[in-house]
Design a protein that fits this description.
22% strand; Uridine Diphospho-n-acetylenolpyruvylglucosamine Reductase, domain 2; 28% helix; 16 strands; alpha+beta; globular; five-stranded antiparallel β-sheet; binds flavin-adenine dinucleotide; 459 residues; Uridine Diphospho-n-acetylenolpyruvylglucosamine Reductase, domain 3; Vanillyl-alcohol Oxidase, Chain A, domain 3; 3 domains
Protein backbone atom coordinates (compact mmCIF):
# COMPACT_ATOMS: atom_id res chain seq x y z
CA UNK A 1 0.00 0.00 0.00
CA UNK A 2 1.40 3.43 -0.92
CA UNK A 3 1.80 6.27 1.55
CA UNK A 4 -0.97 8.14 -0.18
CA UNK A 5 -3.45 5.24 0.13
CA UNK A 6 -2.68 4.97 3.84
CA UNK A 7 -3.14 8.66 4.37
CA UNK A 8 -6.47 8.84 2.52
CA UNK A 9 -7.75 5.87 4.54
CA UNK A 10 -6.72 7.59 7.75
CA UNK A 11 -8.36 10.72 6.46
CA UNK A 12 -11.68 8.90 6.08
CA UNK A 13 -11.56 8.06 9.78
CA UNK A 14 -11.20 11.69 10.73
CA UNK A 15 -13.89 13.23 8.57
CA UNK A 16 -17.67 13.05 8.50
CA UNK A 17 -18.00 13.36 4.70
CA UNK A 18 -16.59 11.11 1.97
CA UNK A 19 -13.12 10.46 0.62
CA UNK A 20 -13.43 9.82 -3.10
CA UNK A 21 -10.39 8.32 -4.82
CA UNK A 22 -10.22 6.99 -8.43
CA UNK A 23 -11.52 3.56 -7.37
CA UNK A 24 -14.68 5.04 -5.79
CA UNK A 25 -17.98 4.55 -7.69
CA UNK A 26 -18.72 8.29 -7.45
CA UNK A 27 -15.28 9.39 -8.68
CA UNK A 28 -16.39 10.44 -12.17
CA UNK A 29 -19.21 12.49 -10.78
CA UNK A 30 -17.01 14.05 -8.09
CA UNK A 31 -14.21 15.04 -10.44
CA UNK A 32 -16.33 16.52 -13.24
CA UNK A 33 -17.04 20.23 -13.41
CA UNK A 34 -19.57 22.38 -15.21
CA UNK A 35 -17.22 23.23 -18.09
CA UNK A 36 -16.86 20.01 -20.08
CA UNK A 37 -13.55 21.24 -21.51
CA UNK A 38 -11.83 20.39 -18.22
CA UNK A 39 -11.62 16.61 -17.91
CA UNK A 40 -9.46 16.43 -14.77
CA UNK A 41 -8.43 13.47 -12.61
CA UNK A 42 -7.62 14.55 -9.06
CA UNK A 43 -5.86 12.17 -6.66
CA UNK A 44 -8.60 12.64 -4.09
CA UNK A 45 -11.86 14.51 -3.68
CA UNK A 46 -12.64 15.31 -0.05
CA UNK A 47 -16.39 15.77 0.08
CA UNK A 48 -16.80 17.80 3.25
CA UNK A 49 -19.85 17.58 5.49
CA UNK A 50 -19.04 20.48 7.80
CA UNK A 51 -16.47 23.12 8.73
CA UNK A 52 -14.57 20.55 10.80
CA UNK A 53 -14.07 18.46 7.66
CA UNK A 54 -12.83 21.54 5.83
CA UNK A 55 -10.19 22.17 8.50
CA UNK A 56 -9.00 18.56 8.14
CA UNK A 57 -9.11 18.76 4.34
CA UNK A 58 -7.06 21.97 4.19
CA UNK A 59 -4.41 20.51 6.52
CA UNK A 60 -4.28 17.29 4.48
CA UNK A 61 -3.94 19.23 1.22
CA UNK A 62 -1.20 21.44 2.66
CA UNK A 63 0.81 18.45 3.84
CA UNK A 64 0.29 16.49 0.63
CA UNK A 65 1.49 19.39 -1.55
CA UNK A 66 0.51 19.98 -5.17
CA UNK A 67 -2.70 21.45 -6.54
CA UNK A 68 -5.71 22.23 -4.38
CA UNK A 69 -9.12 23.06 -5.81
CA UNK A 70 -12.05 24.50 -3.90
CA UNK A 71 -15.37 23.33 -5.29
CA UNK A 72 -18.67 25.07 -4.59
CA UNK A 73 -21.12 25.10 -7.49
CA UNK A 74 -18.31 23.94 -9.89
CA UNK A 75 -19.25 26.65 -12.45
CA UNK A 76 -15.77 28.14 -12.85
CA UNK A 77 -15.30 28.64 -16.62
CA UNK A 78 -11.54 28.01 -16.32
CA UNK A 79 -12.30 24.74 -14.50
CA UNK A 80 -10.47 25.75 -11.31
CA UNK A 81 -12.70 23.51 -9.18
CA UNK A 82 -11.00 20.30 -10.28
CA UNK A 83 -7.39 19.41 -11.10
CA UNK A 84 -5.04 16.61 -12.11
CA UNK A 85 -3.35 14.61 -9.31
CA UNK A 86 -4.21 17.09 -6.58
CA UNK A 87 -6.83 17.50 -3.87
CA UNK A 88 -10.36 18.79 -4.42
CA UNK A 89 -12.02 20.26 -1.33
CA UNK A 90 -15.62 19.61 -2.34
CA UNK A 91 -18.18 21.73 -0.49
CA UNK A 92 -21.13 20.86 -2.74
CA UNK A 93 -22.88 18.78 -0.07
CA UNK A 94 -22.70 21.56 2.53
CA UNK A 95 -26.12 23.04 1.80
CA UNK A 96 -27.36 24.28 5.17
CA UNK A 97 -29.42 27.49 5.03
CA UNK A 98 -30.97 29.45 7.85
CA UNK A 99 -33.14 32.50 7.26
CA UNK A 100 -33.70 34.98 10.09
CA UNK A 101 -36.74 36.90 8.77
CA UNK A 102 -36.85 39.28 11.73
CA UNK A 103 -33.31 40.46 11.10
CA UNK A 104 -33.53 40.03 7.27
CA UNK A 105 -30.41 37.88 7.22
CA UNK A 106 -29.64 34.52 5.65
CA UNK A 107 -26.74 32.30 6.60
CA UNK A 108 -25.85 29.76 3.92
CA UNK A 109 -23.22 27.08 3.47
CA UNK A 110 -20.95 27.10 0.39
CA UNK A 111 -22.57 24.14 -1.41
CA UNK A 112 -25.75 26.17 -1.95
CA UNK A 113 -26.67 27.32 -5.42
CA UNK A 114 -28.70 30.47 -6.01
CA UNK A 115 -31.71 28.21 -6.57
CA UNK A 116 -31.24 26.88 -3.01
CA UNK A 117 -30.81 30.31 -1.49
CA UNK A 118 -33.63 31.99 -3.43
CA UNK A 119 -36.02 29.18 -2.57
CA UNK A 120 -35.28 29.56 1.14
CA UNK A 121 -35.57 33.35 1.26
CA UNK A 122 -38.58 33.63 -1.11
CA UNK A 123 -40.74 31.91 1.46
CA UNK A 124 -40.20 34.96 3.68
CA UNK A 125 -40.64 37.55 0.90
CA UNK A 126 -36.92 38.32 0.95
CA UNK A 127 -34.08 38.22 -1.59
CA UNK A 128 -30.51 39.35 -2.12
CA UNK A 129 -28.33 39.88 -5.18
CA UNK A 130 -27.38 36.60 -6.82
CA UNK A 131 -26.58 35.71 -10.42
CA UNK A 132 -28.57 35.35 -13.62
CA UNK A 133 -28.56 31.53 -13.64
CA UNK A 134 -29.84 29.65 -10.61
CA UNK A 135 -27.53 26.62 -10.90
CA UNK A 136 -24.45 28.76 -10.16
CA UNK A 137 -22.87 28.38 -6.74
CA UNK A 138 -23.30 31.17 -4.19
CA UNK A 139 -19.67 30.73 -3.10
CA UNK A 140 -17.61 31.38 -6.21
CA UNK A 141 -20.07 33.96 -7.52
CA UNK A 142 -20.06 35.98 -4.30
CA UNK A 143 -16.30 35.89 -3.72
CA UNK A 144 -15.62 37.37 -7.16
CA UNK A 145 -18.12 40.21 -6.59
CA UNK A 146 -21.53 38.89 -7.63
CA UNK A 147 -23.44 40.59 -10.45
CA UNK A 148 -27.14 39.92 -11.00
CA UNK A 149 -30.64 41.25 -11.57
CA UNK A 150 -30.71 43.10 -8.25
CA UNK A 151 -27.28 44.79 -8.46
CA UNK A 152 -28.55 48.29 -9.28
CA UNK A 153 -30.93 48.37 -6.34
CA UNK A 154 -29.18 46.19 -3.76
CA UNK A 155 -25.51 46.29 -4.78
CA UNK A 156 -23.23 43.43 -5.71
CA UNK A 157 -23.49 40.15 -3.77
CA UNK A 158 -20.43 41.23 -1.75
CA UNK A 159 -22.16 44.47 -0.78
CA UNK A 160 -24.72 42.34 1.05
CA UNK A 161 -22.18 40.08 2.72
CA UNK A 162 -22.19 40.69 6.47
CA UNK A 163 -19.67 38.05 7.48
CA UNK A 164 -18.00 34.86 6.35
CA UNK A 165 -16.51 31.91 8.24
CA UNK A 166 -13.17 31.01 6.70
CA UNK A 167 -10.64 28.20 7.05
CA UNK A 168 -7.26 29.69 6.15
CA UNK A 169 -4.28 27.89 4.60
CA UNK A 170 -2.79 27.09 8.03
CA UNK A 171 -6.05 25.36 9.05
CA UNK A 172 -7.31 28.11 11.37
CA UNK A 173 -11.05 28.85 11.51
CA UNK A 174 -11.69 32.60 11.41
CA UNK A 175 -14.74 34.80 11.30
CA UNK A 176 -14.32 37.65 8.82
CA UNK A 177 -16.50 40.75 9.13
CA UNK A 178 -16.18 44.50 9.50
CA UNK A 179 -15.22 43.98 13.14
CA UNK A 180 -13.26 40.69 13.07
CA UNK A 181 -10.32 40.06 10.76
CA UNK A 182 -11.45 43.08 8.78
CA UNK A 183 -8.52 42.83 6.34
CA UNK A 184 -9.55 39.30 5.39
CA UNK A 185 -13.18 40.41 5.02
CA UNK A 186 -12.07 43.25 2.73
CA UNK A 187 -10.06 40.84 0.55
CA UNK A 188 -12.79 38.19 0.35
CA UNK A 189 -15.17 40.72 -1.17
CA UNK A 190 -13.93 40.49 -4.75
CA UNK A 191 -10.65 38.63 -4.23
CA UNK A 192 -12.12 35.23 -5.16
CA UNK A 193 -10.91 31.99 -3.62
CA UNK A 194 -7.43 33.32 -2.86
CA UNK A 195 -7.62 33.71 0.90
CA UNK A 196 -9.11 30.53 2.35
CA UNK A 197 -12.11 28.24 2.21
CA UNK A 198 -15.35 29.95 3.18
CA UNK A 199 -17.58 27.59 5.14
CA UNK A 200 -20.50 29.95 5.72
CA UNK A 201 -21.81 33.18 4.20
CA UNK A 202 -24.06 35.65 6.03
CA UNK A 203 -26.04 37.93 3.69
CA UNK A 204 -28.34 40.89 4.20
CA UNK A 205 -31.79 40.41 2.63
CA UNK A 206 -34.19 42.86 1.02
CA UNK A 207 -38.00 42.85 0.92
CA UNK A 208 -38.29 41.46 -2.63
CA UNK A 209 -40.66 38.62 -3.44
CA UNK A 210 -42.64 38.81 -6.69
CA UNK A 211 -41.18 40.95 -9.44
CA UNK A 212 -42.18 42.08 -12.93
CA UNK A 213 -39.77 40.52 -15.35
CA UNK A 214 -39.22 39.13 -18.75
CA UNK A 215 -37.58 39.36 -22.11
CA UNK A 216 -38.05 41.55 -25.18
CA UNK A 217 -36.70 40.05 -28.40
CA UNK A 218 -35.93 42.55 -31.20
CA UNK A 219 -34.91 42.07 -34.84
CA UNK A 220 -31.22 42.44 -35.63
CA UNK A 221 -31.79 45.41 -37.91
CA UNK A 222 -32.86 47.36 -34.79
CA UNK A 223 -29.84 46.26 -32.72
CA UNK A 224 -28.17 49.67 -33.00
CA UNK A 225 -31.31 51.43 -31.73
CA UNK A 226 -31.63 48.90 -28.94
CA UNK A 227 -28.01 49.27 -27.75
CA UNK A 228 -28.19 53.08 -27.87
CA UNK A 229 -31.46 53.07 -25.95
CA UNK A 230 -30.05 50.66 -23.37
CA UNK A 231 -26.88 52.66 -22.68
CA UNK A 232 -28.84 55.87 -22.11
CA UNK A 233 -31.78 54.33 -20.28
CA UNK A 234 -29.86 52.25 -17.76
CA UNK A 235 -27.73 55.17 -16.60
CA UNK A 236 -30.70 56.95 -15.07
CA UNK A 237 -33.42 54.29 -14.82
CA UNK A 238 -34.95 53.76 -11.38
CA UNK A 239 -32.74 51.40 -9.40
CA UNK A 240 -35.53 48.84 -9.12
CA UNK A 241 -34.82 48.11 -12.78
CA UNK A 242 -32.26 45.41 -13.47
CA UNK A 243 -32.04 45.05 -17.24
CA UNK A 244 -29.35 43.87 -19.57
CA UNK A 245 -28.80 43.84 -23.31
CA UNK A 246 -27.99 40.65 -25.17
CA UNK A 247 -27.51 38.93 -28.49
CA UNK A 248 -29.03 35.47 -28.69
CA UNK A 249 -30.00 32.58 -30.90
CA UNK A 250 -33.69 32.12 -30.12
CA UNK A 251 -34.57 28.91 -28.31
CA UNK A 252 -38.09 27.56 -28.90
CA UNK A 253 -39.57 30.09 -26.47
CA UNK A 254 -43.38 29.66 -26.62
CA UNK A 255 -43.88 33.44 -26.83
CA UNK A 256 -41.93 33.62 -30.12
CA UNK A 257 -43.53 32.70 -33.45
CA UNK A 258 -42.32 29.28 -34.56
CA UNK A 259 -40.47 30.69 -37.58
CA UNK A 260 -38.36 32.78 -35.19
CA UNK A 261 -37.00 29.73 -33.36
CA UNK A 262 -33.31 29.30 -34.14
CA UNK A 263 -32.98 32.82 -35.56
CA UNK A 264 -30.50 35.40 -34.25
CA UNK A 265 -31.83 38.43 -32.40
CA UNK A 266 -30.95 41.13 -29.93
CA UNK A 267 -32.82 41.34 -26.66
CA UNK A 268 -33.34 43.15 -23.39
CA UNK A 269 -33.91 40.97 -20.36
CA UNK A 270 -35.48 42.89 -17.50
CA UNK A 271 -36.34 42.47 -13.84
CA UNK A 272 -38.32 45.17 -12.01
CA UNK A 273 -38.29 44.72 -8.26
CA UNK A 274 -40.53 47.68 -7.33
CA UNK A 275 -44.23 48.34 -7.38
CA UNK A 276 -45.87 46.63 -10.40
CA UNK A 277 -47.67 49.67 -11.93
CA UNK A 278 -44.46 51.68 -11.98
CA UNK A 279 -42.72 48.67 -13.48
CA UNK A 280 -45.26 48.48 -16.31
CA UNK A 281 -44.43 52.09 -17.18
CA UNK A 282 -40.71 51.27 -17.31
CA UNK A 283 -41.33 48.16 -19.43
CA UNK A 284 -43.31 50.31 -21.90
CA UNK A 285 -40.14 52.36 -22.49
CA UNK A 286 -38.25 49.20 -23.46
CA UNK A 287 -41.12 47.96 -25.63
CA UNK A 288 -41.04 51.29 -27.50
CA UNK A 289 -37.47 50.76 -28.75
CA UNK A 290 -38.73 48.82 -31.76
CA UNK A 291 -41.57 46.44 -32.54
CA UNK A 292 -40.45 43.26 -30.73
CA UNK A 293 -40.36 39.90 -32.55
CA UNK A 294 -41.87 38.63 -29.34
CA UNK A 295 -41.96 39.39 -25.63
CA UNK A 296 -42.79 37.70 -22.39
CA UNK A 297 -43.14 40.10 -19.50
CA UNK A 298 -45.20 39.18 -16.46
CA UNK A 299 -45.30 39.31 -12.68
CA UNK A 300 -43.49 36.27 -11.34
CA UNK A 301 -41.64 35.01 -8.26
CA UNK A 302 -38.07 36.32 -8.15
CA UNK A 303 -36.68 32.73 -8.25
CA UNK A 304 -38.44 32.24 -11.63
CA UNK A 305 -36.53 34.98 -13.47
CA UNK A 306 -33.37 33.63 -11.86
CA UNK A 307 -34.02 30.28 -13.59
CA UNK A 308 -35.00 31.66 -17.03
CA UNK A 309 -31.77 30.55 -18.74
CA UNK A 310 -31.05 27.40 -16.69
CA UNK A 311 -32.15 24.90 -19.33
CA UNK A 312 -29.96 26.51 -21.99
CA UNK A 313 -26.89 26.10 -19.81
CA UNK A 314 -26.65 22.48 -18.69
CA UNK A 315 -23.66 20.90 -16.95
CA UNK A 316 -20.95 19.44 -19.21
CA UNK A 317 -21.04 21.79 -22.25
CA UNK A 318 -17.84 23.28 -23.69
CA UNK A 319 -17.26 26.79 -22.29
CA UNK A 320 -14.85 29.60 -23.13
CA UNK A 321 -15.46 33.02 -21.61
CA UNK A 322 -14.17 36.60 -21.69
CA UNK A 323 -15.28 39.64 -19.74
CA UNK A 324 -14.62 43.35 -19.66
CA UNK A 325 -15.74 46.45 -17.80
CA UNK A 326 -16.75 49.72 -19.47
CA UNK A 327 -17.60 53.12 -18.07
CA UNK A 328 -19.47 54.01 -21.26
CA UNK A 329 -21.05 52.05 -24.07
CA UNK A 330 -19.43 54.22 -26.73
CA UNK A 331 -20.43 54.36 -30.38
CA UNK A 332 -17.22 52.44 -31.09
CA UNK A 333 -18.24 49.69 -28.66
CA UNK A 334 -21.70 49.55 -30.23
CA UNK A 335 -20.11 49.15 -33.68
CA UNK A 336 -18.03 46.23 -32.32
CA UNK A 337 -21.19 44.64 -30.91
CA UNK A 338 -23.00 45.09 -34.22
CA UNK A 339 -20.14 43.40 -36.04
CA UNK A 340 -19.76 40.37 -33.74
CA UNK A 341 -23.03 39.95 -31.80
CA UNK A 342 -25.07 38.86 -34.84
CA UNK A 343 -22.51 36.06 -35.45
CA UNK A 344 -23.37 34.45 -32.11
CA UNK A 345 -22.69 30.78 -32.88
CA UNK A 346 -25.01 28.65 -30.71
CA UNK A 347 -28.27 28.78 -28.78
CA UNK A 348 -26.31 28.21 -25.55
CA UNK A 349 -23.87 31.07 -26.09
CA UNK A 350 -24.52 34.39 -24.38
CA UNK A 351 -23.31 37.94 -24.83
CA UNK A 352 -24.74 40.01 -22.01
CA UNK A 353 -24.02 43.62 -21.04
CA UNK A 354 -24.89 43.87 -17.33
CA UNK A 355 -25.37 47.20 -15.57
CA UNK A 356 -23.29 47.63 -12.41
CA UNK A 357 -24.24 51.19 -11.51
CA UNK A 358 -26.75 52.29 -8.88
CA UNK A 359 -26.08 50.87 -5.42
CA UNK A 360 -22.76 49.39 -6.54
CA UNK A 361 -21.49 52.89 -7.39
CA UNK A 362 -22.19 54.09 -3.87
CA UNK A 363 -19.45 51.85 -2.47
CA UNK A 364 -16.02 53.41 -2.74
CA UNK A 365 -13.32 51.81 -4.87
CA UNK A 366 -11.15 50.89 -1.88
CA UNK A 367 -13.97 49.77 0.45
CA UNK A 368 -13.78 46.18 -0.86
CA UNK A 369 -11.33 44.34 -3.11
CA UNK A 370 -13.73 44.78 -6.07
CA UNK A 371 -12.19 47.86 -7.66
CA UNK A 372 -14.37 48.77 -10.64
CA UNK A 373 -16.92 50.85 -8.77
CA UNK A 374 -16.77 53.45 -11.53
CA UNK A 375 -17.71 51.03 -14.34
CA UNK A 376 -21.30 51.17 -15.57
CA UNK A 377 -21.21 47.94 -17.56
CA UNK A 378 -19.78 44.46 -17.11
CA UNK A 379 -19.84 42.55 -20.38
CA UNK A 380 -19.58 38.80 -20.66
CA UNK A 381 -18.97 36.90 -23.87
CA UNK A 382 -19.78 33.37 -22.77
CA UNK A 383 -19.12 30.87 -25.52
CA UNK A 384 -21.07 27.67 -24.75
CA UNK A 385 -21.42 24.78 -27.22
CA UNK A 386 -22.02 21.05 -27.06
CA UNK A 387 -19.43 19.46 -29.37
CA UNK A 388 -15.66 19.47 -28.65
CA UNK A 389 -15.12 19.24 -32.42
CA UNK A 390 -16.35 22.86 -32.59
CA UNK A 391 -13.90 24.20 -29.98
CA UNK A 392 -11.69 26.17 -32.36
CA UNK A 393 -14.43 28.09 -34.12
CA UNK A 394 -16.27 28.96 -30.89
CA UNK A 395 -13.12 30.04 -29.05
CA UNK A 396 -12.21 32.17 -32.06
CA UNK A 397 -15.61 33.90 -32.05
CA UNK A 398 -15.22 34.77 -28.35
CA UNK A 399 -11.66 36.03 -28.81
CA UNK A 400 -12.44 38.10 -31.91
CA UNK A 401 -15.44 39.69 -30.20
CA UNK A 402 -13.43 40.46 -27.09
CA UNK A 403 -10.56 41.96 -29.09
CA UNK A 404 -12.96 44.20 -30.97
CA UNK A 405 -14.35 45.50 -27.65
CA UNK A 406 -10.95 45.87 -25.98
CA UNK A 407 -10.16 49.40 -27.23
CA UNK A 408 -13.54 50.53 -25.86
CA UNK A 409 -13.20 48.80 -22.46
CA UNK A 410 -11.30 49.20 -19.22
CA UNK A 411 -8.11 47.17 -18.78
CA UNK A 412 -9.67 44.92 -16.16
CA UNK A 413 -12.57 42.51 -16.46
CA UNK A 414 -14.77 40.87 -13.82
CA UNK A 415 -12.72 37.96 -12.41
CA UNK A 416 -15.68 35.58 -12.58
CA UNK A 417 -16.06 36.15 -16.33
CA UNK A 418 -12.42 35.48 -17.22
CA UNK A 419 -10.84 32.30 -18.50
CA UNK A 420 -7.61 30.52 -17.61
CA UNK A 421 -5.62 32.54 -20.17
CA UNK A 422 -6.49 35.81 -18.42
CA UNK A 423 -4.02 35.57 -15.51
CA UNK A 424 -2.08 38.45 -17.09
CA UNK A 425 -5.04 40.77 -16.42
CA UNK A 426 -5.30 40.15 -12.65
CA UNK A 427 -3.37 43.25 -11.61
CA UNK A 428 -5.55 45.39 -13.88
CA UNK A 429 -8.69 43.82 -12.42
CA UNK A 430 -7.89 45.15 -8.97
CA UNK A 431 -6.40 48.53 -9.93
CA UNK A 432 -5.24 50.39 -6.80
CA UNK A 433 -6.35 47.53 -4.52
CA UNK A 434 -3.86 45.05 -5.93
CA UNK A 435 -0.90 45.79 -3.66
CA UNK A 436 -3.02 45.53 -0.53
CA UNK A 437 -4.42 42.22 -1.79
CA UNK A 438 -0.89 40.82 -2.22
CA UNK A 439 -0.09 41.83 1.38
CA UNK A 440 -3.23 40.16 2.73
CA UNK A 441 -2.49 37.08 0.61
CA UNK A 442 0.98 36.96 2.21
CA UNK A 443 -0.59 37.15 5.67
CA UNK A 444 -3.24 34.43 5.17
CA UNK A 445 -1.76 32.22 2.42
CA UNK A 446 2.00 32.89 2.23
CA UNK A 447 2.78 29.73 0.22
CA UNK A 448 -0.07 30.29 -2.25
CA UNK A 449 -1.77 27.01 -1.32
CA UNK A 450 -4.93 28.38 -2.92
CA UNK A 451 -3.51 29.13 -6.36
CA UNK A 452 -6.15 27.55 -8.62
CA UNK A 453 -8.09 30.75 -9.13
CA UNK A 454 -7.54 34.13 -10.80
CA UNK A 455 -4.43 34.19 -8.70
CA UNK A 456 -3.19 36.98 -6.48
CA UNK A 457 0.40 36.14 -5.60
CA UNK A 458 1.64 36.75 -2.05
CA UNK A 459 3.71 39.96 -1.77
C1 LIG B 1 -24.00 29.43 -16.29
C2 LIG B 1 -23.24 30.49 -15.54
C3 LIG B 1 -23.87 31.68 -15.23
C4 LIG B 1 -23.18 32.65 -14.50
N1 LIG B 1 -23.81 33.84 -14.21
C5 LIG B 1 -23.19 34.75 -13.44
C6 LIG B 1 -23.86 35.93 -13.02
O1 LIG B 1 -25.01 36.16 -13.36
N2 LIG B 1 -23.22 36.79 -12.21
C7 LIG B 1 -21.93 36.57 -11.80
O2 LIG B 1 -21.41 37.39 -11.05
N3 LIG B 1 -21.25 35.49 -12.21
C8 LIG B 1 -21.86 34.57 -13.01
N4 LIG B 1 -21.20 33.46 -13.43
C9 LIG B 1 -19.78 33.32 -13.10
C10 LIG B 1 -19.66 32.71 -11.72
O3 LIG B 1 -19.74 33.75 -10.77
C11 LIG B 1 -18.33 31.98 -11.55
O4 LIG B 1 -18.26 30.94 -12.47
C12 LIG B 1 -18.18 31.44 -10.13
O5 LIG B 1 -16.85 31.11 -9.93
C13 LIG B 1 -19.05 30.23 -9.91
O6 LIG B 1 -19.04 29.85 -8.58
P1 LIG B 1 -19.24 28.30 -8.19
O7 LIG B 1 -19.21 28.19 -6.73
O8 LIG B 1 -20.40 27.76 -8.93
O9 LIG B 1 -17.97 27.68 -8.89
P2 LIG B 1 -16.73 26.79 -8.42
O10 LIG B 1 -16.16 26.34 -9.71
O11 LIG B 1 -17.11 25.78 -7.44
O12 LIG B 1 -15.79 27.83 -7.75
C14 LIG B 1 -15.07 28.75 -8.53
C15 LIG B 1 -13.93 29.27 -7.71
O13 LIG B 1 -14.42 30.02 -6.63
C16 LIG B 1 -13.63 29.79 -5.48
N5 LIG B 1 -14.49 29.20 -4.45
C17 LIG B 1 -15.61 28.49 -4.62
N6 LIG B 1 -16.13 28.16 -3.42
C18 LIG B 1 -15.32 28.68 -2.49
C19 LIG B 1 -15.33 28.70 -1.07
N7 LIG B 1 -16.29 28.16 -0.37
N8 LIG B 1 -14.31 29.32 -0.44
C20 LIG B 1 -13.32 29.92 -1.14
N9 LIG B 1 -13.28 29.94 -2.47
C21 LIG B 1 -14.26 29.33 -3.15
C22 LIG B 1 -12.51 28.88 -5.89
O14 LIG B 1 -11.39 29.64 -6.27
C23 LIG B 1 -13.08 28.17 -7.08
O15 LIG B 1 -12.09 27.75 -7.98
C24 LIG B 1 -21.85 32.46 -14.13
C25 LIG B 1 -21.21 31.26 -14.47
C26 LIG B 1 -21.90 30.29 -15.17
C27 LIG B 1 -21.19 29.03 -15.58
Amino acid sequence: MTTQQVSTEQLQESIHGAIITPDHPEYDDARSVYNGMHDRRPAVVIRCADAGDVITAVSFAREKGGDVSIRGGAHSAPGFSSNDDGVVIDLSHMKGIHVDPAASIVRAEPGCTWADLNHATYAFGLATTGGIVSTTGIAGLTLGGGIGYLTRGCGLAIDNLISADVVTADGRFLVASDTENADLFWALRGGGGNFGVVTSFEFRLHPIKDILAGIFVFPLDRAKDMLRFYRDYIKTAPEEMGAFAAFLVAPPFPFLPEEAHGGTYCAIISCWSGEIDAGEREMAKIRDVAPPVGEMVAPMPYPAINALFDELLPFGMQNYWKGSFAKELTDGAIDAHLQHGPQIPTVNTAMHIYPINGASHRVSEDATAFAYRDATFSTVIAGVWPDPADDDKNVKWVRDYYQALEPHSEAGGYVNFLDADDQGRIKDNYKGNYDRLTQIKKKYDPTNLFHLNQNIQPA
